[in-house]
Structure formats: structure tokens, C-alpha cells
Specification:
Layout (H helix, E strand, L loop, with lengths): L1 H4 L25 H4 L2 H19 L6 H19 L4 H5 L2 H7 L5 H6 L4 H18 L2 H13 L6 H16 L4 H16 L10 H22 L7 H13 L8 H27 L4 H6 L4 H11 L4 H19 L19 H4 L9 H4 L4 H19 L2 H7 L9 H18 L3 H19 L4 H10 L11 H7 L6 H22 L3 H6 L7
Helix pairs in contact: 3-4, 9-10, 9-16, 10-11, 10-12, 11-12, 11-25, 12-14, 12-25, 13-20, 13-23, 13-24, 14-26, 20-23, 21-23, 22-23, 22-24, 22-26, 23-24
Length: 516
């Protein structure tokens, strides 16, 4: 249709002019379509909200009860997917003013702060990398150096997983998985398939696909831009404790990178133990060698000018992120602007390498979900619901932290595994963990970080995270592989996080000190 062809023309009409009217009989709406499970889920949110407003009474302001009712409405829609997630994510914009929790203007501010601009800039960089095929060149360069001659399967697996983890440090997990999985399966295409595929070859394929699937969220843990959960954590910390020093890119990296590194080597050891036998090198030598990787690399040709420019912008962004705020004695370049710039400022650098048609691919659903998380965190605090919840957690005051932190991590991982996304899990749990920390008299980050990072330990089921789905759809792995590997990795990750948080975390985040 002509209307479709000119959809990008700013002068084209928003509605068709001469299209014939559709007959009324073709309407998809009918009484039968209204009586469905999805319709029941849509009504479930307002119904729960009404029940709470009518029958729940708190020893506090009315807004605290109203906030709980709104949470029941929003989270029921999130968990059941009764309406698209972006629609649910903007629900606070009209529910908060409707129930007297906050004004529409104050809620709207949550949908565009420094963290949101950081996400926007990072996603634009991801689209640029995809457009010019830089990720494939990077992967082939690194894996060709790890292949070995003759082929060394554990070393090659390490190279593929390390490449994926490195790329995931600087872009969103889903984008990284979508880009890196074809690179990994492209290497596996040299191997035989079907009945002629030997057990060592089949196990190597499983190890590579599982490695890419799991290295993606592990690499994303190390930086703020790697996953939306880290950004939700930082934003909720900033909104809950505005007078306390915020968690910057550099600060998180000093904790997140060692954490991700230890979990990454645990992943590699688990995959080698389960899938790479001593005879795998001989089985792969006939099909996979360094010459194959070099041929793939030669097909890409030399670096184009656009690729060089994107790599230059990429390197400049990383350098600026790392040096905006270094230490208390060495403030970094951010001090030149008297605290008026943030990590989001860096991510808005512009080069004539992208156009708006490419930027239309931005994942606005994730951006709106982040904004909803920030709005809910502010609403829980301002409505008085946070104080009400903290009083219900008094029984935890006597429990030791070393018992609570692993439990928080595992609960967060289980919620992500079976119920909802890691972003939604972090949005749901972090406000509660802030109040729990007040109740048991520990630094809030000692619980918030295990809750946020734990939500990324959903390794056991294909539906746990989108990166798991990307790996599962390749056909190289089944659910048994994911459960077996994912359970061991979940236990290892929980143990590493529980050890690092009160040790390295105390040094990086100053959790031995109080908060304002």
C-alpha cells in the first residue's frame, strides 16, 4: 500500500485517506472474545486494587494503602502479561495521581533521568555495532587466537565465552546474545550433524551454546550498562538515599568485574567438567581449526571508516565512564562541571554514523520498564508504604546476615526463573529489601545487591531469561542440559556473591558506614 511505503515521510498523513471501509462483520470483537482467560487477567488488576482499598487498613497514611493497591494492580498485569508490558509500565503515570500518591509531573520525571539517558545512549551504540557488523569481526579475531593448533577445546570454549562476556559488558544482554549466538553457531557449522555426530562433538556444541547463553548475563553483571537490573539498582539507591554518594560506573565496575570474573571461571570449569572429555580434541581436530576462523575473518575485509569511528566512540565512552569520578582524592573530569553531569551525559555523544530509521529499533519496552521501576520506588517511599512494610519485618532482626543474603539471592533467582523477568523482579524486591535492611539494621546495599544480582542467576529454564531462549532455540541443548548446568552455576554464583559482598563490597561501597 502507498501508505506503508511513505510511512517514514514526515509529510504523509497519519491516517489513510482513500482506503475503503472494512465491513462491520470482520470486526474481531465479539462476546466470545471478551470471555477469555486474558480478559480475566485484565480484570484481575483492578479487582485486586479494589479489594485492597476496601478491606485493608494500615496504621499509617491512606496513601500507603493506596500504594499497595496500585502495586497489586501493576504487578498482576506484569506477571500475567494481561496487557503488553510497555502499557503496564506507563500505568503509574495515571494510577499515582488517581490514588493521590504523587502528581503526574513528579511521576513523569522518573521516566527520564540520568540513568534512562545512559540506557538510550548504550542502545544506540549497540545498534551501530550491529549495523556495521563489528561484533562478528571482534569475535573472530579473539576466537582465532584461542583456537590452538591443533585445536584445544577448553581453550576455544574459553575464547568464545570470554568474547561474549566482554561484549556483554558494554551492551544489553539480549542484544549481545542475539549478536553472539550466530557467531558461535557459525563456528559449530563446521562440525557434523545428525547420526554421524559423535558424543564428544555433540557435547562440545552443548558447551559452546550454554557458554554463550550464560556468559552473556555474567558479563553484564560487571558494568552498569550490561543489564537493566544494575541500572534499576543504582536508580533506586539514588532515589531512596539522595544525600548518600551515588553508585557511579567506576564504583560498580570495581565490584562487578571481580564478581563477574569469578562466576565466569566457575562457568568455564563447570562446562569443561560436564561436557569436554579428554578425547574431544581428537574428535574436533578433523573439522575445526585456526584456518577456518582465518577464512571467516578474511571474508570481512579490512576495517571500514565507519567501523573505525564507532570503535573510537566506543573507546571514548568507556574512558569517560571510567574517569568521570575516580576517587575522593582524584575527582575525575566530572568535577569540572560541578556535579552537573552523569554517566548518561557521556552516552549521548553524537557521530554521523546512524540515522533515525536505525534508532527506531530502540527497545522502548525496556526503557519504559526502567522508568516504571523508578516511579514505583519513589512511590513506595513517599506514600509511607515503606514504613509500614518495615514494621512487618521485625522478626528478621535476630537473623544473621550470612543466612539472609544467600536466601535473598536465591529467592530473587527463583522469582526470575519461574514468574517474571529479572528487571521486574528487581523492581518488585528492591524496595522491600531496603525496608528489610532498616529492620535488621544493616547497610541497605548488603541486601539490595544480592537481590539485584541474584535476579540474574536464572540459568535453569529456557524461559528464565531471553538469553536462555536464544540458546535453547538453536537446537543444540535441551532442558536437562540447562537444569544440570544451571543449578551448579546458580549455587556457585550465590556462594561467590555471598562471600564478596561483605568483603570486597564493604570496601567498594563503604557498607561498614551508615547511610544518610
Amino acid at each position: 500500500m502507498a501508505g506503508d511505503q511513505n510511512s517514514d515521510d514526515p509529510k504523509s498523513p497519519l491516517l489513510p485517506i482513500n482506503d475503503p471501509m472494512e465491513p462491520l462483520s470482520s470486526s474481531p470483537f465479539s462476546l466470545k472474545s471478551l470471555v477469555s482467560l486474558k480478559s480475566i487477567y485484565v480484570l484481575l488488576g483492578p479487582l485486586l486494587c479494589a479489594i485492597i482499598c476496601l478491606y485493608v487498613r494500615f496504621d499509617g497514611p491512606v496513601t500507603s494503602r493506596n500504594m499497595l493497591a496500585v502495586l497489586a494492580w501493576v504487578f498482576s498485569w506484569w506477571l500475567t502479561e494481561a496487557v503488553p508490558m510497555p502499557i503496564t509500565s506507563i500505568a503509574p503515570l495515571f494510577l499515582f495521581p488517581l490514588f493521590g500518591i504523587a502528581s503526574a509531573d513528579s511521576v513523569a520525571h522518573s521516566y527520564m533521568d540520568d540513568v534512562i539517558t545512559l540506557v538510550l545512549g548504550s542502545f544506540i551504540l549497540v545498534l551501530a555495532v550491529e549495523r556495521y557488523n563489528i561484533h562478528r569481526r571482534l569475535a573472530l579475531n579473539i576466537t582465532s587466537r584461542f583456537c590452538g593448533d591443533p585445536v584445544n577445546p577448553p581453550l576455544l570454549l574459553l575464547g568464545i565465552c570470554a568474547t561474549t562476556a566482554f561484549v556483554s559488558m558494554w551492551m544489553h544482554n539480549v542484544a549481545c546474545a542475539v549478536m553472539m549466538m550466530p557467531v558461535a553457531t557459525g563456528i559449530l557449522q563446521r562440525l557434523p550433524v545428525g547420526p554421524t555426530q559423535s558424543t564428544p562433538v555433540r557435547n562440545f556444541c552443548r558447551a559452546v551454546v550454554l557458554g554463550v547463553s550464560y556468559a552473556t548475563p555474567i558479563g553484564g553483571m560487571s558494568t552498569l550498562t550490561g543489564t537493566g537490573v544494575n541500572l534499576i539498582l543504582v536508580a533506586m539507591w539514588k532515589s531512596s538515599y539522595p544525600e548518600t554518594k551515588p553508585i557511579g560506573f567506576n564504583t560498580w565496575f570495581f565490584f562487578g568485574f571481580p564478581l563477574a570474573l569469578l562466576i565466569f571461571f566457575a562457568l568455564w570449569a563447570i562446562l569443561c567438567l560436564l561436557y569436554l572429555s579428554r578425547g574431544s580434541s581428537q574428535a574436533l581436530a578433523a573439522y575445526l581449526d585456526k584456518a577456518h576462523l582465518k577464512r571467516e575473518l578474511d571474508m570481512l575485509g579490512p576495517l571500514a571508516f565507519a567501523e573505525k569511528m564507532i570503535l573510537a566512540v566506543f573507546g571514548m565512552m568507556i574512558a569517560l565512564w571510567m574517569t568521570r569520578s575516580i576517587t575522593e582524592d582524584i575527582p575525575g573530569w566530572g568535577a569540572l562541571f560541578h556535579g552537573r553531569v552523569g554517566d548518561g551525559t557521556v552516552s549521548q555523544k553524537g557521530e554521523r554514523l546512524m540515522d533515525w530509521n536505525e534508532c527506531k529499533k530502540l527497545p522502548w519496552n525496556i526503557i519504559l520498564l526502567l522508568g516504571a521501576g523508578f516511579a514505583i520506588a519513589d512511590g513506595v517511599q513517599s506514600s509511607g508504604l515503606a514504613d509500614v512494610l518495615s514494621r512487618t519485618l521485625d522478626f528478621l532482626e535476630q537473623a544473621p546476615y550470612l543466612a539472609i543474603a544467600p536466601a535473598v539471592c536465591l529467592i530473587s533467582a527463583i522469582i526470575t526463573e519461574f514468574i517474571t523477568s529479572n528487571d521486574a523482579t528487581a523492581t518488585l524486591l528492591l524496595p522491600l529489601l531496603i525496608q528489610m535492611a532498616k529492620t535488621i539494621h544493616v547497610h541497605p546495599l548488603l541486601l539490595m545487591i544480592p537481590g539485584a544480582v541474584g535476579s540474574q542467576f536464572a540459568f535453569m529454564l529456557p524461559t528464565g531469561t531471553p538469553t536462555n531462549i536464544v540458546g535453547f532455540t538453536t537446537g543444540h541443548i535441551d532442558i536437562q542440559d540447562m537444569i544440570k548446568t544451571g543449578l551448579l552455576l546458580k549455587i556457585a554464583g550465590t556462594a561467590i556473591l555471598s562471600f564478596l559482598m561483605p568483603t570486597l563490597g564493604a570496601y567498594v561501597f563503604g557498607t561498614n558506614e551508615g547511610v544518610q
